[in-house]
Amino acid sequence: MNTTDEEQHHAIDSRAQDARLSHDLDVTIDQLEAAEPEAKLAHQQAVLAVVGQLLQTDGGIDVIFARAAAMDLAGLFVGSDWDAPEALRPQISGNTLLAEEPDLVALEVASLFRFLAVATGAMRHRNLHQDHARHFLTQVLALNVRDIFGQSDEATRALGARQEQKQAILRFISEHIGLTDVLGVLVTEIWRLLEQRSIQVGVVKDMIVQIAIALNENGTEPGSERLGAERLVSALFGPTVASLDDPGVDAYRERIAHFDEAALSREAMGFARAMHDTGLVSDYHVTFLLYVLDYSDRALVPETLGLGTTGLDCWRHYRRLIEDLIRAGVTLSTPQAIYGLTLMLERGVLHHAPMVPALERQLQQKVRGSARDRIRMGFGDLVSPETHVLAGVLQIIGQPLGVGQGANPTCQSARAISMWSQVEPDYLLHIIYQASEFDAILMHFEGTDINSAHLPVGLAGFGPIDADPVSVLLVAHLDKIYAKMGQLCIGREGDPHRWINPEFHGWWVSRDCAVAVDVATGKLSDYDNFLHRFFAAYHPHYNGDRPVSHPQPAGIAVTDPNQQFIGWHAIAILRVAEDQSGIMRVYFYNPNNDSGQDWGGGVVVSTSGNGERSGEGSLEFGHFLSRVYLFHDEPLRGSKAAQISSSAEIRDVKEQATQSWAADRL
């Protein structure tokens, strides 16, 4: 049976299941309505059970919404707090949708859909006015705006299907009431995400489309919210004078064909300004760049990219290669490759001797075997897998801190790709070549060959598809190799990362490793010395003002806003420096697509406003250390740190740790 047949059979089975459950829901609603007061509870539970089953099906949400009024009239909420909708609080809905009890989730969904039915005029309610219902739902969406975006972190990944279900419900509501009333919240959230310059911007672009629709249909009051929204919309749909009316790429190409040099130069600067302002690339930018690539009177490519001194120097030295990269990697299906290319040139990495031949090899590289199928599955067939991979290469090398793991348990692999891009981009291109040509990666662990083709599937399965093209190509292989290295450490005393990280990442990872937790017992072990060692290794006031020369892998204990332990997570320490207020901060790379997280107890990761560069997260030094459980150190320094940091600083960090992730590890 081919894929099309399987999809058709799935669709038929899904419709049949929806029809059966729709009938069951109608029957249970009728029974609830006819039930005597003393029997209501049992029939309410029967209705909720069917609602819960419908939430697991493709079309179940539509079925539930269509019966929102009937469930209310039948008495589904009688005897519960939900029976007084005017008293419900929108702050509670988000957490209730994630409850472990299926009946509680089903009840909250039924309640929200009752609000939605009133808000859209599909039903009337004696205690719920249409305007109040709409305002309530707007507050729910605003309070849970990140779930509309689908951004993943450790906490949401741990929730799995419950989180996906919550996102589906919120998106259903947003589709029915629109996003105009939450425009301010959405615009603020989009700008916060864009400041981090993630490689994956598809969801953000989708949300900007919704904002454009909302502005077109309803508009907003003049002010900062509308200005911020219009900047976002114009960056995609009208970043220049000639594209301001969003004429379509074909019409736009005809327009610029009649422009003189001065007009083309103005367009080039407009595109560059919008791209550097937002990190987003318009389809018109792609059209313009490909046009001026062949403009003979003047080299307009540098203006179109908005190159600075370093980028211009690379352009002058490697113009032919850059033009080849544009022709092969920049298409309407891969517009963000322009931004990646620009930042790659600004990094000056082309002056690193192996990079030019490595990129020339990439231009000729074919993607073979199952790797080709994975790229097609993730990105479609509008352009070739080779084009997608090349575009991904430009973005990864240009935006090493924009690599994200998506909704996958692959933080180790995402961190490795980012660190290689930062330190050894030529090595990264080497393993991309291996994966493309042989559908395998060969690495070594203490002299032992490890070939990913000979290893069983790891945590990443056959690889993510909700990631950038390079990650889709590499992660499955890297995940298997990392797991194999762990197996080769079985029987050794201590945490295996001590040996794995330097072998996996590179020579620049310090060979000694400090671990706060005893591997055998899970309890804190010599924690005071651990804290002193971190101060001695990384705090400029205690290490002789020595900067971090290469990113260093570290492990953190991630906690939720209530300081409850979620799990271990891989990050990379990038630098330690004072911010503009004189506060010492640790700046780090987090493989999450969104580094801004609340870890509880006042430990809130900042992504802008405190000296962060694009893609960095930061915390005050003590706050960061309170969540660290593993870091690498220089072996020649010795494992016993001098008592150089103040006892008050150590005490504060220890208190924050033992009140959160280490509370039961004493």
Secondary structure: elements and pairs:
Layout: H1 3-34, H2 40-54, H3 60-66, H4 68-74, H5 90-96, H6 102-119, H7 130-143, H8 145-149, H9 154-159, H10 161-177, H11 183-195, H12 202-217, H13 224-237, H14 249-256, H15 261-278, H16 283-292, H17 301-305, H18 309-329, H19 337-347, H20 355-364, H21 369-379, H22 385-398, H23 411-423, H24 425-438, E1 442-445, E2 448-451, H25 469-488, H26 497-505, E3 512-515, H27 527-538, E4 552-559, E5 565-578, E6 584-589, E7 617-620, H28 621-625, E8 628-633, H29 647-658
Antiparallel strand pairs: 1-2, 3-8, 4-5, 4-8, 5-6, 6-7
Helix pairs in contact: 1-2, 1-4, 2-6, 4-6, 5-7, 6-7, 6-10, 7-10, 11-12, 11-13, 12-13, 13-15, 14-16, 15-16, 18-19, 18-20, 19-22, 20-24, 23-24, 23-25, 24-25
Could you walk me through the main structural features you see in this protein, from its secondary elements to its overall organization?
The chain is α+β, with helices and mostly antiparallel strands and 666 residues long. The chain contains 29 helices and 8 strands. A hairpin with a 2-residue loop joins strand 1 and strand 2 (448-451). It is globular. The relative contact order is 0.06.
Strand content: 5-15%
Strand order across the biggest sheet? 3-8-4-5-6-7
Annotation field: number of helices = 29
Ends apart, CA distance between termini: 57 Å
Salient structural properties:
single chain, 666 residues, alpha+beta, 6-stranded antiparallel beta sheet, two-stranded antiparallel ribbon, 29 helices, 8 strands
